[in-house]
Write a structure and sequence with these properties.
With 446 residues, chain A is α/β, with parallel strands linked by helices. Chain A contains 13 helices and 16 strands. Chain B has two domains: 179 residues, Rossmann fold; 110 residues, 3-Layer(aba) Sandwich (Rossmann fold). Classes of the chains: A alpha/beta (446), B alpha/beta (349). Chain A: One of its GO terms (biological process) is pyruvate decarboxylation to acetyl-CoA.
């Protein structure tokens, strides 16, 4: 049975039936509105008692009659709901940003569609689960070496990606797993790279700090060195005239590096399309911002470069600020600086418990009050953009994905020994490489 | 007689070579005249043009040709544009190619070296010039770590960059005269080249720009003004034939070796200034040893990594060896005696 309707939400052509087996109550609903109930064979029309838009009365009456006639067939319990149960789009107020050398900032409201909301939720949950899984694998000594986790900072990765496109460029420092994912990497590849297997994103040769995808330049071990590299990428964008920009991230610790100020100078001089983003998670390893910086207003440190300070725990705030910054760069005004105030729950790296320089209460407070995933979840539930079951389903799916990836990462073989010396030079003839002793000879291929 | 490209003549002291003037040897290198004559004869036979070009102009030509050939090549560094290059190596390039491709940077080595490497990541082919290699110490992290990216990305991210600049000693200076060939030569993934004459300088710079790998290109500032024959052909790398001793060197010291060889020839010691390392990679040592073994039955192998005033020491040493120790030592790889002379262990400037 299908009904043409003058209201959008009546386009559904089946109705859901809810059966309560204890009391033999049957409720028939159309578009989330209960229109009939049947209890022990007594049918009652409910549409009189629930709000229905004016134009839909006639179809609903028809529906009631038909459902009564089709009574024997009615007892199909249809489990799924129509998409139109949920609000497709909602506008939220976001925190005002602090401005430096700017007249106007990003807007104070942000619109979120349901699809976007679910996508952000899923990505943030994936990053969170992936980092926690990496923590687990590290403690089992399956991941070794360095491992810097970014749980708590998911909104930065997801929000920035929401404000730029995949054809733009991004470079960051070593807390890079989340960015690798948002820039096109898969969880399998990332986890296999952490465990150093051949299925990894850099074939097991890069590790945690050297993951590369298209238009994503890692993953850099030297603190602050990635910022001039990002300016170089921006120079290439301007040189090639392709209207792309480069996002260059660094932390509150790196913000004191001299090469970053050198980069501010050159990028401002040559008007490079670069967005400098300082992810201020309050601690540079174990040194809090008050103990390491004479000026903790990192968004003002660019001096002649305009700056904005943004709440980095709110994905919508980050997204709107990134869009604003991207427009600024693309219009040829030159660089802009964004400070994202965020927090990491884990210590600096896996060798740091994270509680010798801060209190557990502080971590708990941030987790309960400003967790990015909870914030998004609450927003979506309150505005009926998704149901709790749906979000739970996403959680389950993400958990499964991470489990599969961890399984792959644990069982995939390591790269072969022949690969040890390959990729030293690009497009070169194979040549011999001296091994650890003068009589050990290895071959290098490009 | 030797002439400049525009037809004017060099003054006699330059013609004789700065080495001759410095060490007061006071003669034109006879081997060069002989090999020069041979080359002229061969070129006349094969109708190949032969110019006298100094190293500076050879580097300029190389960069000009590569900038023209590939849109992605560009030059950045201090004073490379409007100043025509601190040592005039990039003379005329800014006028020809403009601000987009010849970029003057502020005095911030770490910053602009990083920017050059980042541009190489994104697909351009930069030439990053350091005013001297001493200043590259400010940016050594960016140079060394550019070499790791291709390996750490398992072949995903090549870095086609050339770092260029003058290296080693200069006339009368105490500061900014250190030689960094060995420093950079120890870095895996980095190609380090150190040419001597114009032909090698031009050829190697072109090859370096076309190479998809990071290349560290060092020349000596004092060689910039010295003219050499430059032809279209690639000349052999044996600068002087000899049977007793092989002298191996790079950059400016090749000139010392030639001078020393000339003096020793009078004493009856034939020195072969044959394989001079264009590449300062220490692990190519084995390659030389093998090559020498193939060519020769007996001899000593001497490495000269030096800078100032070493010629005197070299002549003395070789003379000592040849006079007091028998030269006819049977040659075997195990008995290969290699003696390295190098800078006095004193860091100046």
């Amino acid at each position: 049975m299908s009904f043409s309707a003058n209201e959008a939400f009546l386009l559904v052509d089946w109705f859901s039936v809810f059966q309560d087996r204890r009391t033999s109550l049957v409720l028939v609903s159309c578009n989330g509105v209960f229109i009939q109930s049947c209890c022990c064979g007594v049918w009652i029309n409910l549409w009189k008692y629930s709000y229905v838009p004016y134009g839909s009365v006639l179809p609903q009456m028809l529906l009631c009659c038909l459902s009564r006639l089709a009574q024997p067939q009615v007892f199909l319990v249809v489990a799924s709901r129509s998409y139109a149960d949920f609000t497709p789009e909602a506008t939220f107020d976001i925190k005002k940003v602090d401005l430096h050398r700017l007249e106007e900032g990003p807007p104070l409201t942000a619109t979120l569609t349901r699809e976007e909301g679910l996508k952000y939720y899923r990505t943030m949950q994936t990053i969170r689960r992936m980092e926690l899984k990496a923590d687990q694998l590290y403690k089992q000594k399956i991941i070794r070496g360095f491992c810097h986790l970014s749980d708590g900072q998911e909104a930065c990765a997801v929000g920035i990606e929401g404000g730029i496109t995949l054809s733009d460029h991004l470079i960051t420092a070593y807390r890079a797993h989340g960015y690798t994912l948002t820039r096109g990497g898969t969880v399998r590849e990332i986890m296999a790279e952490l465990t150093g297997r051949r299925g990894g994103i850099a074939k097991g040769k890069g590790g945690s700090m050297h993951m590369y995808t298209k238009n994503f330049y890692g993953g850099n071990g030297i603190v602050g060195a990635q910022v001039p590299l990002g300016a170089g990428v921006a120079l290439a964008c301007k040189y090639l005239g392709n209207d792309q920009l480069c996002v260059s991230l660094y932390g509150d610790g790196a913000a004191n590096q001299g090469q970053i100020f050198e980069t501010y100078n050159m990028s401002s001089l040559w008007k490079l399309p670069i967005i400098f983003i300082c992810e201020n998670n309050q601690y540079a390893m174990g040194t809090s911002v008050e103990r390491s910086a004479a000026s903790t207003e990192y968004y003002k440190r660019g001096d002649y470069i305009p700056g904005i300070r943004v709440d980095g725990m709110d994905v919508l705030c980050v997204r709107e600020a990134t869009k604003f910054a991207a427009d600024h760069c693309r219009s040829g005004k030159g660089p802009i600086l964004m400070e994202l105030q965020t927090y990491r729950y884990h210590g600096h790296s896996m060798s740091d418990p994270g509680v010798s320089y801060r209190t557990r209460e502080e971590i708990q407070e941030v987790r309960s009050k400003s967790d990015p995933i909870s914030m998004l979840k609450d927003r979506m539930l309150i505005n009926n953009m998704a149901s709790i079951e749906e979000l739970k389903e996403i959680d389950i799916a993400v958990r499964k994905e991470i489990e599969d990836a961890a399984q792959f990462a644990t069982t995939d073989p390591e790269p072969p020994l022949d690969d040890l010396c390959s990729h030293i030079f690009a497009n070169d003839q194979p040549f011999e490489v001296r091994g650890a002793t003068p009589w050990t000879k290895l071959t290098s291929t490009s | 007689m030797l002439h400049r490209r525009d037809g004017s003549r060099f003054p006699p002291d330059v013609t004789l070579g700065i080495q001759a003037k410095e060490f007061n040897l006071g003669f034109i290198r006879p081997d060069n005249l002989v090999s020069h004559g041979l080359r002229v004869f061969r070129c006349l036979l094969s109708s190949v043009s032969l110019f006298q070009v100094n190293v500076q102009d050879a580097l300029n030509q190389a960069m000009d040709e590569e900038l023209e050939r590939d849109e992605r090549v560009f030059l950045l560094g201090e004073e490379v544009a409007q100043y025509d290059g601190a040592y005039k190596v990039s003379r005329g390039l800014w006028k020809k190619y403009g601000d987009k491709r010849i970029i003057d940077t502020p005095v911030t080595e770490m910053g602009f070296a990083g920017i050059a490497v980042g541009a190489a990541f994104a697909g351009l082919r930069p030439i990053c010039e350091f005013m001297t290699w001493n200043f590259s110490m400010q940016a050594i992290d960016q140079v060394i770590n550019s070499a790791k990216t291709y390996y750490m990305s398992a072949g995903g991210q090549p870095v086609p960059i050339v770092f260029r600049g003058p290296n080693g000693s200069s006339a009368g200076k105490l500061t900014n005269i250190y030689c960094f060939a060995a420093w950079y030569g120890h870095c895996p993934g980095l190609k380090v080249v150190s040419p001597w004459n114009s032909e090698d300088a031009r050829g190697l710079l072109k090859a370096a720009i076309r190479d998809d790998n990071p290349v560290v290109f060092k020349a000596n500032e004092l060689m910039y003004g010295v003219p050499f024959d430059l032809s279209e052909e690639v000349m052999p790398k044996v600068e002087r034939q000899g049977a007793h001793i092989t002298l191996v060197s790079h950059s400016r010291c090749v000139g010392f070796c030639l001078d020393a060889a000339a003096v020793l020839a009078k004493e009856g010691v034939e020195c072969e200034v044959s394989i001079f390392t264009l590449s300062a990679r220490v692990c190519e040592l084995a390659t030389f040893q093998l090559q020498v073994k193939q060519w020769r039955r007996r001899g000593w192998l001497l490495f000269l990594w030096a800078t100032n005033k070493l010629c005197y020491f070299l002549i003395f040493f070789l003379h000592f060896i040849c006079t007091y120790i028998s030269v006819s030592v049977s040659y075997d790889q195990k008995e290969l005696l290699d003696i390295r002379t190098a800078t006095t262990h004193l860091k100046l400037g």
